[in-house]
Design a protein that fits this description.
- About 30% of the residues lie in helices and about 35% in strands.
- By secondary structure, it is an alpha+beta fold.
- Strands 7, 8, 9, 10, 11, 15 and 16 form a seven-stranded antiparallel beta sheet that branches.
- A hairpin with a 4-residue loop joins β12 and β13.
- α5 packs across α7 and α6 runs antiparallel to α7.
- The model has no long low-confidence stretch (mean pLDDT about 95).
Length: about 375
């Protein structure tokens, strides 16, 4: 077994990376000879920790299959000094693989007992929003503008390692170590992308709002409400996304959210329709408690689809009944609206809760 150590200055030391990458945190990544822990084995484990502004990288390299137990033991000894784990898809692969290989040798481990930040899982909902072609680590590094010397994938290097076992060479070992080294170092840089997930989870301030009138493609005039937001953590790359006439753009410390305004008449549907009558001539429902004032010939028993009151005004969309009363165009509509009032426009708290609702709807891919 070979243990290789290196230190380098952390070039991406920001308030966001400081939040997640503390001196009690450990990054790790493994290189294996296949996907199945029952039929393959791990030959390289890379770790990264930090001391102040420096990143400390340690690699445990098995020069042959018989040294697997040694690198597992050395890794577990290192792991015991830390309280938090950070990986890229570690919850999907690395942890399960290591647990099975440790069990084979009777090694005690605590991999699933420590808090674990999986960068891949945190970013997964935002792939379409950031217009990412792939969520592979190298693709995300490219999105950030990070360049590598390594040009191989983990799969490419399996054969390189198998050939190394038969005929060790400095060139082959350097290729294997470089890939793992840059995977580990790249993960520490990918923390910057968590600024997007933090934004969508509500880490922002509402700075201002304004109404805007714009001309559509057919020449008609429409209104929108534009929110200006300040994310807690700077967004490293510009992004732009739209869905159902909702537009979201952001870069660094500024985010703009454009919401369509509906001006006209909508309906509020009462849930307890059995307690109402419908008045066809007036196109509205009235409660049974006042129905005796209405001629029987001018009323019918209300149905769910006819039990409503009409309201003219200006409205904003919502995708669950979070602000009441809730309005729709028809009973079957999934999209709903709420009235845009001065109370809403004067309350940063109401606005923020609403914006979080919209961001969640966008990230859910609706």
């Amino acid at each position: 077994m070979k243990i290789l150590q290196d230190q380098t200055k952390y070039a991406y030391d920001t308030p966001l990376t400081q939040k997640f990458f503390t001196e009690s945190s450990l990054f790790f990544d493994i290189e294996t000879t296949g996907f199945s822990p029952s039929h393959t084995y791990v030959y390289l484990i890379g770790c990264a920790s930090r001391k102040g502004s420096m990143i400390c990288i340690t690699q445990f390299f098995a020069e042959n299959p018989q040294e697997e137990e040694q690198i597992l033991s050395a890794f577990l000894q290192t792991l015991s000094k830390f309280n938090n784990l950070i990986t890229f898809n570690g919850l999907g692969f690395d942890v399960h693989y290591l647990k099975e290989r440790c069990a084979l040798y009777g090694l005690t481990e605590s991999l699933d007992k420590l808090p674990h930040l999986d960068i891949y899982r945190k970013l997964f909902p935002y792939k379409p929003i950031l217009n990412l072609q792939s969520l592979k680590q190298k693709s995300l590094e490219k999105f950030l503008g990070v360049e590598r010397k390594d040009v191989y994938s983990g799969g490419d290097l399996i054969q390189v390692y198998l050939e190394y076992i038969q005929s060790p060479s400095e060139e082959s070992r350097s290729l294997l170590l470089l890939h793992n080294y840059e995977d580990i170092l790249g993960m520490t840089m990918l923390l910057l992308l968590l600024s997007y997930s933090m934004l969508f989870e509500g880490d922002f301030d509402v700075d201002s709002h304004e109404k805007n009138i714009y001309e559509t493609f057919d020449g008609s005039l429409e209104q929108e409400l534009i929110f200006s937001l300040s994310p807690e953590f700077s967004l490293p790359k510009r992004f732009s996304f739209h869905s159902s006439q909702i537009y979201l753009t952001g870069f660094q410390q500024q985010v703009k959210l454009r919401i369509p305004i509906y001006k006209g008449e909508l309906k509020h549907f009462y849930s307890n329709y059995k307690d109402y009558y419908y008045l066809p001539e007036e196109d509205r429902a009235i409660h049974k408690s006042v129905a005796f004032y209405t001629d029987r010939n001018y009323r019918t028993r209300a149905k769910a689809s006819t039990c409503y009151m009409r309201k003219a005004g200006i409205f904003l969309p919502q995708y669950q009944e979070m602000i009441t009363p809730c309005f729709k165009q028809t009973y079957q509509d999934k999209a709903a609206w709420f009235e845009l009032t001065e109370d809403f426009l004067s309350s940063k708290e109401l606005q923020k809760n609403y914006i979080i609702h919209i961001l969640k709807w966008l990230s859910d891919g609706k």
